[in-house]
């Protein structure tokens, strides 16, 4: 039984979620497919500038829309508010044409306008780079799930894909094939020292390139774009697999790096100083397992483990098969650190002390082991599940779901958890959070029907594997190693 509490009645109570239209909701029971979740519980998010406590009425949560695993599938429009408007209309807030009803009849009726926000109104004015990449990924998932390819062939959709690709593939001053972004441009949308080439953006970028290549209509105008896309895929996969990967062997290699090497065949290409290796990493790295580091720039490696970037590298095939298994090995080996009382740490470890003060600007929301600074986010359950299913290791996700089930419903579905062992509900966590409920449901139902994960998974492309092998064999560092 799936439980939710009602804020509206301002009392503690457990309610069985009502069947809405023809779709059922089954929380802990085994189901054949993900049904449409329409949870009539109070959402502690602001809607139209008003919070639930401001009397904005009951907020309906359609939490499975993002992955389109529900029985009735809706196209993933970038700005999609049809359901919200319909629900408000049913509650008497809107007229049939979408205009807002005014309490005072002396005011003229106004029409709602969709005003896209590219970060101009965001806290800190952060640019949501990941949103366009997710749109391409979910667009492909919609087509695979529904079998309806007509939306993918629409001119406006094809134009949208091309616009995103041209923006991401544009020439610049950057020396690397990775995407250069500012701080706070992905799920971590506050200052956390991830500016540059954060892994999460690179994993989504790689995934979006693969998905876009599948969906782009073959035409003369797309030839140059597809050629640039293919070249970037090869360079990006080589760069991430070769230079972002860290395990005990690679860590020992970095520990013995020589610096200030000037040549094409330099081993320490990014002039990384061995003293950058943090003491915590020396003790933390397991004998078996490894992961992709959080960021790489000249003379800088961010050794923090970022969950979403690593998991999506597995899902998208950015990580090799061996690396993907090693990432899951590390999660199992460091279960008490990364999962603990609630899956999953958004990153590990937390920034603390003077490092926290300098990097975050003493951000009171990102205090150590809270929010984006190594807080625990239940929504990451579904990415862990897809990664586990792809590598034929679903038992890892099943174990994490069992951990979450111990308290997430009782705690009223918080946005995130605090403390090193995830023992406290986040100090500013929203309750009945859409993506916390969605993360759990998608994980639960994918475990019941693993074949549904295929819509999100991309396998290694044989052409990319061949090109990657050629680049490895031509890599001066590899040649130098064999001569020794």
Automatic annotation (TrEMBL):
One of its GO terms (cellular component) is chloroplast. It catalyses: Hydrolysis of terminal non-reducing beta-D-fructofuranoside residues in beta-D-fructofuranosides. It holds the Pfam family Glyco_hydro_100. Keywords: Carbohydrate metabolism, Glycosidase, Hydrolase. It comes from Hevea brasiliensis (Para rubber tree). Invertase that cleaves sucrose into glucose and fructose. Belongs to the glycosyl hydrolase 100 family. GO terms for biological process: sucrose catabolic process. One of its GO terms (molecular function) is endo-alpha-N-acetylgalactosaminidase activity. This is Alkaline/neutral invertase. Its EC number is 3.2.1.26. It comes from the Eukaryota. The keyword tRNA-binding does not apply. The keyword Zinc-finger does not apply. It is an enzyme of class 3 (hydrolase).
